[in-house]
Design brief:
β2 (about 135-140), α8 and β3 form a beta-alpha-beta unit. This protein has a five-stranded mixed sheet, with helices on both faces. The chain is about 60% helix and about 10% strand. The longest helix is centred in the middle third of the chain and has 28 residues, at about 85-115. The protein is elongated, with a radius of gyration of 26 Å. It is built from 14 helices and five strands. The chain is an alpha+beta fold. The chain has two domains: about 5-110, no CATH class; about 115-285, Glutaredoxin (3-Layer(aba) Sandwich), CATH 3.40.30.10.
């Protein structure tokens, strides 16, 4: 999933996970250091009963129930256990990752419900498929995002295979100045009823997307270039890009592409992207969706 360094709120999810997954290790090491410092120069032995219950022993040590020598022994027990069982770090990290992902999913559901009008029913949204479709799929994307380019075929397949689906595109030009320029050209093309054509051309093209390459593609597609250049600098186009960035921030969308189907989220462009999107659409048709 592509990401951008300029906007501080658009850090990649993977970067966040790497930092967060280091927390368990750091906490354990910090605890060992603290226990060790409290018991410097103290003798070691600890009774067998205390060694048999390391968790309760740690709690007691922290509450001041053990003297310095006992705390040192507990620290040694923990250290030896972790050295002999290093896989425990993987288990802790896995549990933390699952917990964080669950919390993120819950926050996203709340954010989607609170911003449903702007996400799914924004007036004059860039749309492909059936404008009055029964289920809406939303994609946040960047024209210079390699994964967005890879996912284009799956989005096209969804639109062509499902005549009732509606796809809304949210320009999120986070990778470069050229991305923002291409986004403005595409949104200006929407005003001439050619958004989908320009969108597909930009994501299908090789090389860097920027104002020059986007204008060239628009001209090849027969757009009124004088009008296009005027529209791409309009307040309406600039406001729409700013709104998409604001929505991304509210929902914690940290990279592109990122798909929303109702209150379900599909980050990135997995190999089975079409299957995932199609399955979510089918499930929502059966269950009903009040805002998509």
């Amino acid at each position: 999933m592509s990401s951008s360094s300029p906007p501080s709120f658009l850090r990649t999810l993977s970067e966040r996970k790497i930092l967060l997954l280091a927390v368990p290790t750091l906490l354990v090491l910090a605890a060992l250091i603290a226990i060790g410092r409290q018991s410097e120069n103290a003798p070691a032995p600890v009774v067998a009963a205390e060694a048999a219950q390391p968790a309760s022993a740690i709690a007691a040590a922290n509450s001041g129930q053990f003297d310095a020598s006992q705390k040192q022994a507990i620290g040694q027990i923990i250290k030896e256990y972790l050295i002999k069982n290093p896989e425990i770090f993987i288990e802790v990290q896995g549990a933390l990752e699952a917990k964080l992902e669950k919390e993120q999913a819950e926050r996203l559901k709340v954010a989607i419900a609170e911003n449903a009008e702007d996400i799914f029913r924004q007036p004059n949204a860039a749309v492909a498929g059936d404008p009055n479709g029964d289920i809406t799929v939303v994609e946040f994307f960047d024209y210079n995002c390699g994964y967005c380019k890879r996912g284009l075929g799956d989005v096209v397949k969804l639109i062509e295979s499902d005549p009732k689906v509606r796809v809304v595109f949210k320009e999120l030009p986070i990778l470069s100045k050229g991305s923002e320029e291409a986004a403005r050209v595409a949104l200006a093309a929407r005003m001439q009823g050619k958004y989908w054509e320009v969108h597909r051309a930009l994501l299908s093209a090789r090389g860097q997307a920027n104002e020059a390459s986007a204008l060239k593609l628009a001209e090849e597609l027969g757009l009124d270039m004088e009008q296009l250049k005027a529209d791409m600098d309009s307040d309406e186009v600039k406001a729409e890009i700013a709104q998409s960035e604001d929505l991304a921030k509210k929902m914690g969308v940290n990279g592109t592409p990122h798909f929303l189907v109702g209150d379900r989220s599909v980050p990135g462009a997995p190999e089975n992207l079409y299957e995932q999107l199609s399955a979510h659409v089918d499930e929502l048709r059966k269950q009903g969706c009040s805002f998509c």
